[in-house]
TrEMBL record:
Residues 1-48 form the HTH araC/xylS-type domain. Keywords: DNA-binding, Transcription, Transcription regulation. The keyword Transcription regulation applies. The keyword DNA-binding applies. It comes from the Bacteria. Gene3D superfamilies: Homeodomain-like. This is HTH araC/xylS-type domain-containing protein. GO terms for molecular function: DNA-binding transcription factor activity; sequence-specific DNA binding. InterPro entries: HTH_AraC, HTH_AraC-typ_CS.
Length: 48
């Protein structure tokens, strides 16, 4: 959950999702997107 919170904080600053995923420790941007959809029930873009 902390990794996701860190990723969302970075994404809210306008950092590209691929960079956010890499910096937050995800394998790639689709991995981040799948986790957001799994936990929040909505796509990453809609969450921001």
């Amino acid at each position: 959950m902390l990794r996701l919170q860190r990723a969302l904080a970075m994404a809210r600053t306008g950092t590209p999702f691929a960079r956010v995923a890499a910096d937050a420790g995800y394998a790639d941007q689709p991995h981040l997107s799948r986790e957001v959809r799994s936990l929040a029930g909505i796509p990453l873009r809609e969450l921001l």
